[in-house]
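Schema walkthrough. Field components (list of strings):
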Amino acid sequence: MLRVENVSKSFGGLTAVAGVSLDLGDNQVAGLVGRNGSGKSTLLHIITGFYKEDSGWVLFQDKPIQDLPHDAISRLGLPRTFQQVRVLPFLSMRENLLAVAPDQQGENILSVFFRPRLIGRQERENRRRADEILQLMKLEHLAERPADELSYGWERLLELGRVLMCRPQLVLLDEPSPGLAPLMVEEIFDRILEMNRRKVSFLLVEQNARKGLSVSHRGYVLEQGMNRLEGTGR
Ligand SMILES: Nc1ncnc2c1ncn2[C@@H]1O[C@H](COP(=O)(O)OP(=O)(O)OP(=O)(O)O)[C@@H](O)[C@H]1O
Ligand SMILES: [Mg+2]
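Field assembly_structure (string):
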């Protein structure tokens, strides 16, 4: 599904990623672990089009994607989260999900006048999907709560819900668990496994190596921007 081949990236004199390769099959979870500064986020930024690699290839479904802009890569079915949580603070949980629904004809002024029925159908469908995701994430009881009233852990779960709205094939998560209480960490990993059962693949960056690798079919350890170890997991 995703193949990263020999990717490198330097910032000035500092080599952040030095010839990293990884291979992720359909419906799989891959764990990417390593110490601070080992190049994990840089690699994620490259795969998702936020950074341009200096050399190497990134292939999704056997097609190169490294020259696509990040929004096009997300639309291909590869949405991501960031190391810092990103939600819309003043909107409710449900509105946060609706805000990222793809293909919103209601945003097109011509469609508002000429295709009102289509918009109505899309809005109903998006709302149905948002409620389905709230249910899947076990967040229905918080649907109307503004995001800025939520604890950090709930925000992390909401973020996962937001990527699901985009009907992803492969979700890239940059450290979803640090700073969370152990129970919340379990909740997050539980939802990742549940989504994986529903055929969503994951590339999961984690500093908590044991936890990250315990949910992964394949694990990669980076050290100083290089592949250090690789192995099969669950
Ligand atoms: N935009 C940038 N400009 C300059 N140096 C950078 C930039 N981004 C990352 N680096 C450097 O590249 C190296 C790899 O950083 P990266 O953020 O990829 O590590 P990481 O494995 O994600 O670490 P952490 O676990 O702390 O998030 C580090 O030495 C970092 O300082
Ligand atoms: Mg990082």
